[in-house]
């Protein structure tokens, strides 16, 4: 049978930038093995399969696969799928159309607010389903520096030091001195497990305070070789976990804080991720991830 799919560029307002995403709109009836094989065929950071929701009040059930395995939650698939399903619901939009899309992911139900505008990229913001919390510790500075091809003196800035947090998917967070150090990262897989752990989610999110865009707060690169992702142009799940890093090291006051993260610039796929952090009584209260997406292509799979 023919199954419709779309390719979107996510966390960008223009084509051929941001993070590419494949969404198979007719995923019902596909086995786990078929979904994994299709994701490997697309060979993008993630491929989403849309299924009928278990709760009829929700928009869809979705399953998210990297080329190597399934994820319980991911950010750019959530943003891109929400925008695509809003387009499917409303078709061509005149002026502006708001929508609420609820996606059933393995981590739980994720509520997304979507804004479609005529002649503009769609925008989606979702409530992060699990607040950031510390994850399994990563290696020492010497091992981390060796794995990234940097000197130990380039690891860290201000009071920021390597840490690990997760909001559904764990990441090792590595602060580096500046954009120059960020641009020179070269992976050494011979010491990768020593630096980031011997497990499927030994992913490294490398960041600095220096930015390219004037309104960004951080620049970042994300490497996930165990997922089959040499480098990711934009990583919403990492941004969700990064809320814990910002809260821990920057000592956020109560209220709402807006943090824009730029990623993918070194890959020629510039991406902008909006991170909103609500603090209450000195603790994380709520986190939201937002970004734009554009539809690049549509087609059919004959599977």
Automatic annotation (TrEMBL):
Active site location: 46
One Pfam family hit: PhzC-PhzF
Domain of life: Bacteria
InterPro entries (UniProt xref): Phenazine_PhzF-like (IPR003719)
GO molecular function, one term: isomerase activity
One annotated Gene Ontology cellular component of this protein: cytoplasm
Signal sequence range: none
Similarity section: Belongs to the PhzF family.
NCBIfam families the UniProt entry points to: PhzF_family (TIGR00654)
Record-given protein name: PhzF family phenazine biosynthesis protein
Organism, scientific name: Stappia albiluteola
């Amino acid at each position: 049978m023919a199954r419709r799919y779309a390719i979107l560029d996510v966390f960008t307002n223009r084509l051929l930038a941001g993070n590419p995403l494949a969404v198979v709109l007719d995923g019902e009836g596909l086995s786990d093995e078929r979904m994994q094989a299709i994701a490997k065929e697309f060979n993008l950071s993630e491929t989403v399969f849309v299924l009928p929701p278990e709760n009829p009040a929700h928009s869809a059930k979705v399953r998210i696969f990297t080329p190597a395995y399934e994820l319980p939650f991911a950010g750019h698939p959530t943003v891109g799928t929400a925008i695509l399903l809003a387009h499917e619901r409303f078709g061509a939009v005149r002026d502006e159309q708001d929508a609420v899309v609820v996606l059933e992911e393995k981590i739980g139900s994720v509520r997304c607010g979507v804004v479609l505008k005529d002649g503009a990229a769609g925008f989606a913001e979702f409530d992060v389903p699990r607040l950031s919390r510390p994850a399994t510790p990563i290696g020492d500075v010497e091992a981390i520096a060796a794995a990234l091809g940097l000197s130990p003196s380039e690891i860290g800035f201000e009071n920021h030091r390597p840490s690990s947090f997760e909001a559904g998917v764990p990441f090792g967070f590595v602060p580096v001195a500046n954009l120059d150090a960020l641009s020179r990262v070269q992976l050494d897989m011979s010491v990768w497990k020593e630096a980031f752990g011997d497990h499927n989610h030994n992913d490294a999110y490398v960041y600095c305070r220096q930015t390219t865009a004037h309104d960004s707060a951080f620049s970042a690169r994300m490497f996930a070789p165990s997922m089959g992702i040499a480098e990711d142009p934009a990583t919403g799940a990492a941004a969700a976990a990064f809320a814990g890093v910002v809260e821990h090291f920057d000592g956020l006051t109560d209220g709402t804080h807006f943090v824009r993260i730029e990623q993918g610039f070194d890959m020629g796929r510039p991406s902008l991720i909006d991170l909103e952090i609500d603090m209450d009584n000195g603790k994380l209260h709520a986190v939201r991830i937002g970004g734009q997406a554009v539809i690049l292509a549509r087609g059919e799979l004959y599977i």
